[in-house]
Fold this sequence. Notes:
Radius of gyration: 23 Å
Number of domains: 1
Largest sheet: none
Number of strands: 0
Helix content: over 70%
Shape: elongated
Number of helices: 2
Strand content: under 5%
Amino acid sequence: xxxxxxxxxxxxxxxxxxxxxxxxxxxxxxxxxxxxxxxxxxxxxxxxxxxxxxxxxxxxxxxxxxxxxxxxxxxxxxxxx
Length: 81
């Protein structure tokens, strides 16, 4: 029979949420490194993107393609060493 005790329900709910959170973190753990590098690249290249966008007449897609083309060789060179 399921207990109707409110303390038991709170403890069981807390343990369930804790286990679920732990499981989610374990599943997402392999993605934390790449996400951190993505954030670093975005922050580092944002001024370049803004400058290229101004030079391209506020065309965002063209600016993003040019910025990607500019950053990609540096990423490849960094990963090769």
